[in-house]
Amino acid sequence: MRKLSFAAAFMLAAIPLAATAGDPGVPTPQASSCLTGSYRMADGSTLDIGAAGAGTHRWRRPDGQTGALVRQDDGEWISTLGWTERPDGHRLTVSNCKQGRIRFDNVAGQREPLVQIDTRFQGSGVALSGRLTLPPGDATVPLVVLVHGAERSSAIDTYSLQRELASQGIGVFAYDKRGTGRSEGRYTQDYLTLAIDAIHAMHEAKRLAGKRAGRIGYQGGSQGGWVAPLAARIESVDFVIVSFGLAVSPLDEDREAIAFDMARAGFGPDAQRKADEIASATAAIIESNFTEGFGRLDALKEKYGTEPWFPFVRGNFTSYLISTPEAVARRDFPALLEGVPAHYDPMPVLSNLDVPQLWIFGGQDRDAPPFETLRRLRELKRAGLPIATAVFPHADHGMYEFEIDARGERASTRQPEGYLQMMVDFIKSGRSDGLESN
């Protein structure tokens, strides 16, 4: 499950929705692929395979290794490392797809008989589509509801966590956010509306699981890090996991992302101050719903546009406002950020959320730098709230480690070892043994 950043969602929102897989009426590759599933391998390991679009699939290991699979003319599938285009030496052959028999690196595997129940349920005024995935058998299992980030794709069709966690003995409920996939309603980024939808999803997960339902909670990534704690504050659950989410507002996220980029590029306080002027100007435009403030931004672009630090001003939405003509921004951007509470302060919710929480961050997250969030969570921890944090120092947004390609861009290679297991342990026990609160 690769959650999108605020910036990525902002950019994707400009793509015509009628052309994207996962929208109502548009079939998705994963929905029709008999290869999709979690596999038990003859050597005792596990392997997840899911469709990745355009005739490709993606394999994942519990330790975070992953690769893209492309079918060759002879029927064999060749893997490339992570999200790079570099072959990694892994090969897949399909012995019998319908019967779930494969060979990966010449090791035989059998698809696990996970239990999947598709459903339609009522959200906050709209009908939503969901899927409960359970381990085989009739034992009581903990349940986790996966809360969307800002992406517009179908969670049911694209979230590999629903199988990866189920193969570890956890029940998982994934649902298509309103306005995405097969769910009805208008897409929104209003956190309260989405939190109410998440609560309805939690109820549906418990209903479908019946006697198998044990402890239940939420896992939310990126924007879901604002939504999941709010849902848990409205109606208590047993745990909350936030992956690469924040305890600051969206506008503060943009400022912190700019500051992080400036520091990474080696620019000092003077450049930081000037870049913050630009962040203030773009914030004013957003606060006006893109009706005013463009003159101020144009003046700053004229003033600073030739300085060496200027090309490094990125942030989550500032770079789009810098590079987009005013007429286009006025016309298109209000719809792209519809519902986003730019000044949303999550601290009143978090300060009163007495639910075990695990917050997981990437130390190189350019889209959602975790530093102020970590400081705030430390304060809440000292106040006695049950909060644990973990930082994977080499991970970017989405909890992906990366390499730098020939163009100087980051290319994701894998998820950090221990990331999945950390969530599994917390979901099963609610404890944060061995984790730091720093």
TrEMBL record:
Pfam families: Abhydrolase_6 (PF12697). GO terms for molecular function: carboxylic ester hydrolase activity. Keywords: Hydrolase, Signal. Gene3D superfamilies: alpha/beta hydrolase. InterPro entries: AB_hydrolase_1, AB_hydrolase_Est10, AB_hydrolase_fold. The keyword Aminoacyl-tRNA synthetase does not apply. It comes from the Bacteria. Residues 144-401 form the AB hydrolase-1 domain. The keyword Signal applies. Residues 1-21 form the signal peptide. This is Alpha/beta hydrolase. It comes from Marilutibacter aestuarii.
